[in-house]
């Protein structure tokens, strides 16, 4: 009985100690965690949280790394100065733009009475805007702008200018969508550079005012014409005409031969009378086309109409057209000749004469000056023609001194000097009747 009581007593005591036994921490070496909390267990097991860091030099696959502390400043572009704006290059590297994001101050340079100004702006870009002003701050249009490098602009003027030129080239930011008007997006001499637009990236159609055609497609074999609204070139509705042409040269105005002109072997057909031709390919056919009809006009003569505007066939014996026989006109077959013994003829010549002494004919003196008259013979009778303003007191004669030569003789018949007719016009006429 005493033993049963003792066992019961011991069991009750053990049960009463179970809560205390449940709060006992099993050590790590006993297969436990050695701690009563998760954080404590991680610490006991050597798995406590800790900060793990790597330096920039340990980052693989990234070149030209730079930065300070825990901040990675640039990739691939080397060191960046404080305040500079970041941008991507063509390879996707983040690099410095070389300037602040807010832009740089515009560069201004004075000029004085010059036709060429070299602006060293040091903005580091080819994308610049240049404006020039005179001394009154009125805008001046340059004759030309040349951008030789990223830090220089050359401006030229048609006439010397004084004032200043301003260069700006730090604008940044994304551009709007849609078509662009420049293939390269910069001013100055255009040469291809990395990053330029290609035509596949440009929307729209280049218009006539931009040096384009305003046309996106052409039809083979068609001629090109200007559209009805005058804004573009387009394919004509039909193929180019072929065959005969009406003009030897294909253009209006004064006709002078040029390279590429048609020659007659390339022109089919015959030029009609209305086109300045004869409408025929032989002389006989040409006469038929150009003269009044021959039919029934045998033995008639061709004469000019009374109004003098055309020709017509007429009876050779009418209208004063009959030949006169005898000494006046002799008809010998188809030849009409003149009898010089019956028909008078004349020779005339005029000349402006100078050399009458010293410009004054002294009293009782005479001077002679000669001039040519082709056909004159020595001894021919001459009808003289005197200047209307020849001074009073001068008496003159003319005679043929030799073949083809007329001599004018002037004499002062007064007792005083008389002004000579310097530079005056004299005329000599020879009338021959046999």
Continuous helix count: 4
Oligomer: single chain
Shape: elongated
- Average pLDDT, all residues: 75
Order of helices and strands: HHHEEEEEEEEEEEHEEEEEEEEEEEE
Instruction: Please bin the fraction of helical residues.
Output: under 10%
What's the N-to-C terminus distance?
208 Å
What share of residues are in beta strands? 25-35%
Largest sheet: 5 strands, antiparallel
Number of strands: 23
What class, by secondary structure content? mainly beta
Round the Cα radius of gyration to an integer and report it: 58 Å
Would you give an account of this structure?
- With 434 residues, the chain is mostly beta strands.
- Among the domains are: 62 residues, no CATH class; 47 residues, no CATH class; 88 residues, no CATH class.
- It is 8% helix and 32% strand.
- It is built from 4 helices and 23 strands.
- The strands form 9 sheets. Strands 5, 6, 7, 8 and 9 form a 5-stranded antiparallel sheet that branches. The chain has a 3-stranded antiparallel sheet with strand order 16-23-19, with no helix packed on it.
- The longest helix has 15 residues.
- The chain is elongated and about 195 Å long.
- The N and C termini lie far apart (208 Å).
- About 3% of the residues have low confidence.
């Amino acid at each position: 009985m005493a033993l049963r009581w003792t066992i019961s007593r011991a069991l009750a005591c053990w049960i009463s100690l179970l809560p205390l036994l449940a709060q006992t921490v099993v050590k790590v070496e006993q297969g436990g965690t050695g701690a009563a909390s998760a954080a404590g267990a991680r610490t006991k097991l050597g798995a406590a949280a800790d900060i793990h860091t790597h330096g920039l030099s340990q980052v693989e696959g990234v070149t030209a790394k730079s930065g300070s502390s825990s901040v990675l400043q640039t990739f691939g572009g080397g060191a960046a100065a404080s305040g500079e704006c970041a941008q991507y290059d063509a390879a996707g590297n983040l690099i410095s733009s070389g300037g602040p994001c807010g832009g740089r101050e515009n560069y201004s340079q004075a000029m004085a009475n010059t036709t060429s100004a070299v602006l060293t702006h040091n903005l580091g870009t080819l994308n610049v805007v240049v404006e020039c002003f005179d001394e009154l701050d009125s805008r001046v249009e340059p004759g030309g702008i040349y951008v030789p490098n990223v830090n220089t602009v050359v401006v030229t003027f048609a006439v010397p200018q004084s004032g200043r030129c301003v260069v700006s080239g730090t604008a940044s930011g994304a551009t709007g969508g849609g078509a662009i008007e420049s293939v390269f997006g910069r001013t100055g001499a255009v040469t291809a550079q990395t990053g330029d637009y290609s035509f596949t990236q440009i929307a729209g159609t280049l218009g006539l005012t931009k040096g384009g055609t305003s046309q996106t497609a052409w039809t083979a074999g068609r001629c090109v014409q200007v559209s009805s609204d005058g804004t573009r070139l387009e394919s004509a509705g039909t193929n180019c005409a072929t065959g005969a042409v009406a003009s030897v040269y294909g253009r209006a105005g004064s006709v002078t031969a040029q390279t590429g002109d048609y020659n007659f072997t390339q022109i089919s057909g015959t030029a009609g009378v209305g086109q300045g031709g004869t409408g025929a390919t032989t002389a006989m056919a040409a006469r038929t086309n150009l003269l009044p009809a021959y039919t029934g006009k045998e033995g008639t003569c061709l004469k000019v109409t009374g109004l003098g505007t055309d020709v017509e066939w007429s009876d050779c014996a009418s209208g004063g057209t009959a030949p006169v026989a005898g000494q006046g006109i002799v008809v010998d077959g188809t030849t009409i000749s003149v009898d010089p013994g019956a028909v008078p003829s004349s020779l005339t010549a005029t000349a402006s004469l100078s050399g009458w002494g010293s410009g004054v004919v002294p009293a009782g003196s005479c001077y002679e000056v000669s001039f040519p008259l082709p056909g004159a013979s020595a001894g021919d009778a001459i009808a003289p023609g005197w200047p209307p303003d020849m001074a009073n007191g001068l008496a003159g004669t003319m005679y043929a001194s030799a073949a083809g030569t007329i001599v004018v003789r002037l004499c002062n018949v007064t007792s005083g000097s008389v002004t000579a007719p310097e530079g005056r016009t004299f005329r000599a006429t020879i009338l021959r009747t046999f």
